[in-house]
Amino acid sequence: MAKKILLSGIQPSGKIHLGNYLGTLKNWVDMQSKHSCLYSVVDLHAITGNYDPKKYQEDIFNTVVNLLAIGINPKKSIIFVQSSVKEHTELCWLFNSITPIAELERMTQFKDKASKNKQNINVGLFNYPVLQAADILLYRAEVVPVGEDQLQHLELTNTILRKFNNKFGNTFNEIKPILSKGARIMSLADPASKMSKSLGSKHYIALSDSPEEIKKKIMSAVTDTSESKEMSAGVKNLFTLLELLADKKIYNKYLNEYNNKSLKYSELKSELADVIINLLKPIQEKREYWLQNRKKVNKIILNGNKKARLIAQKNIIDIKQKMGLL
Ligand code: TRP
Q1: Residues classed as catalytic
Q2: What span, in angstroms and rounded, lies between the C-alpha atoms of 326 and 320?
């Protein structure tokens, strides 16, 4: 059976944190053996928010380095930069002509971002999900691994492709979102919120954090805030991480201690910090390697861009023909 095409995108924000890794990116790595994968650094999406044009090329580069470091293998997968394939914006425009405004107005991410950044509610931010649909369908991808927050955008992609198929003839297969089993990782300092970079550095562990920084952040993670009987969100978060990353035996040992009230949080945290340090060590070594070999990284990017372009150029011709544009 032919492998299905998988596509996903990551914004070039430079740093990746443990929540991104366990929630989505580890899945990207695992999927490489099952599907024919394309991974895009979506620089055209990220310019709809605030960004620094002077630092942007470096952020894009570092994002690719991070992908290589976690184990995205350029021999198996295509890693490319969205803006280097002009057909993304072209297809976005074509899809604009069949996307109802009302569908975009429903998007919770748009509403959320718009309410947080009232000075910069631009048309691109509104159109963001149409560009995302173009990213996916330009390669006729059918499998899309994302975080939970992207599900609504993927439903919209299916709405757009159904409209296209109805109007212009059967062209695209429905896409299937893949959610990773990696649970939602919460902030260390405010476990009611999801781990995120925008909260500030004590809230997250970056893949590039030193062992000392990791120790410090885990040791000062919020645990119990009240005498409630239920496990607090902070403690739950530490256990989630331990369950995902440590031996089952170790996890069970601490859970038993918690249940019979003999658990010392400092011991749990110290164990967890070690587990995270060990997880990140090989990733950090690879990261160093790629940072020292910038030319190789650039070559990987150019090569990926070229491969992506070839597929995109072929597919857009078919799409334009169906729409009567060729
Ligand atoms: N919007 C996605 C995010 O913020 C990134 C993205 C852009 C994407 N294009 C995509 C994800 C296509 C999957 C498929 O996480």
Answers
A1: 113, 194, 197
A2: 6
